[in-house]
Structures are given as structure tokens and as C-alpha cells.
Specification:
347 residues, alpha+beta, eight-stranded mixed sheet, 13% strand, elongated, oxidized purine DNA binding, HhH_motif, hydrolase, DNA_glycosylase
Amino acid sequence: MSFAEKLLHWHETENNRQMPWKGEKDPYKIWLSEIILQQTRVEQGWRYYENFIKNFPQIQDLANAKDEKVFKLWEGLGYYNRCKNLLDTARFITHNLKGNFPDDYSKILSLKGIGPYTAAAICSFAYNQPFAVVDGNVFRVLSRIFGIETATDSTEGKKIFSQLAEKSLAKKEAAKYNQAIMDFGATICKPANPLCSSCVMKNDCFAFKEGKVNLLPIKEKILLKKIRHFSWFVLKVKDETFIHKRTADDIWQNLHEFYLVETEAQPNWNKKDIEELLQNQFSIKPLSIKISKELIQQLTHQKIKAVFIEAELNKKPGSLKNQTWLKLEQIRELAFPKLVKDFIGMK
């Protein structure tokens, strides 16, 4: 089966993700959900969406509402310009288009507050038109499965991913495909702890086969973060330890490191969470686990907070089997980022 066929089969048989706007065909409700979800997590946006639909079941109800009432319902979501554009567009459609939401991509794109992503989502979900919807989940899935190591937020990367997304799209089932790939990224191909061991794509996944799940996708602007949270997994089999050479275009390029998992927030690792990650990514249970104290490095524009998790394994994980495994004396001869060097120096 092709990538799209496998994805649609997973969607039909295993995808249990629930959201109130899922499967919706009303362009008004799809538009409303997409605007609410801009810069907002699904869990937070869910309640706001339901409140808006309860108060304004039709686009005309929103158009005729008082600004104060709409802004009060929006309170807490932030980015209030979204709310202003929401009202402007509702009133434009109601008064200038007789309340009929456009079904043409270029006309939808011309509406206030709607960009290419939202226009593609409305065309796809409401009208099943063949437009690929590309969000962070889609970037991650495509990057890992097809082995795209170009930064998703670079000019070249945006072009590559856009073309790949269009090429991969199941054009006759665009709505179902777009929902499937976004849900797949949100529930299976997750950022920090993907469920690789049970993934239907693992035999075709570049990142899984090459041991690069933790490295993809690549982002250029990640360096703009002021605080970054690193968890280096020191994977050991007998007297050998997994070592990776960094190729990303950053200050540590060409230096070595252990298996790195970077998270958005500070991880509070415990034995259960570590065992779950190792099971999900490598289908392996550690013989022992040791978590270091937090180490901190202050760089010019960012602070690195790191922990080292030593995991004794009874065998090398399949996806890392053909990667570099070295003895401690060999490791000491390599160049590492300062925090890793300091950790090795404690041994």
C-alpha cells in the first residue's frame, strides 16, 4: 500500500481521536474552529468553540452580535486581532455574500484573517477539494517518514514540504486524508514520545530505520528560544554506548552526543515515563535506569537545561543497531558539547 492508503486505513480502523469539529462539513463551523485553534492548543480551544457555536449557531448570528459579547466569549484566548477579523469576516459574508460562505480557494483566501492554511482546511474539509493542509503535525510526519532533513521553517523547506504534501494527498478523499495525517501526527508520530513500536508506518519510516526519530523535523528558529530542555539518553549495551554525530547547522555541528530528546517544557522524568519512551521508540525494556541531576549551561542567547538518563539495555535497539556504539575510552577521544563533556568527565 502507498503512504496515503496506509494512512487512510489507519484512520478508518484505529483513529479514535475525538474533537467537536471533526467530520464537520459546515464551512462556517470549520472556519470558526480553525481561527480559534490558531496559536491555541486543542484542549483549550475545545470549550471556546462549543461556547461560540452555542451562542452563534449560524454565521448570521455571529455577524449580528454585539462586539462586547463576542469579545467577552473570546476572553482568555489572546491574540484579540483574530476576534476582530472573525467579526469582520462574518459581517462581510452575511451582508455582501448573502450569508453564503465562498467555496473557491482564492475567494476564501481574500477574507480577513484567513491565510493559506485556513483556506486549504476549509476547502478540504467543507468541500472535499484537493488541497493539502500542512500544520506542525504534518511537517513532523512527512519529515520523519520521507527523511526530509531540510528545516521546516526555511524558505526551501516550506517549498519542499508543500510539494510533498500535495504529492502525497489522496485527492479524491482530501478531507479524510487531511484529518488522518493531522491526527496521526497528534496521537502516534508525536514530538517527544512517538509511538514508533506500534506505528503502521515504521517499516517505511526513514527516521525509524535510521535512528533519527528524535532529530526530525529540523527547525531553524529553534535557536531563538531562551531556555531549551535537553534529555540525553545514555544507552548502554554491555561496555558500549550509543553515540551520534550532530549534523544540524547550529553551534554544535560536527560534535558528538548521546541520544537526544528535546522537549518544550522541563521534563520531570521518572522510571515509568522512561520505560514508556524506550518501549514506544525501540520496543525495548531497560535493565536499569539512572537519572542525573540537572546540569545548566548559559550561552549567549539561550540557556540549556539538561539531564542525562543512563539506561542499561540487554541488546541494541533495531533502529540503532547499525549506528555508532563505542567503549568509554573511545568516547573520551571525541569532541562533545560542554554539558556532555562535563557529564563524561564525571565517569
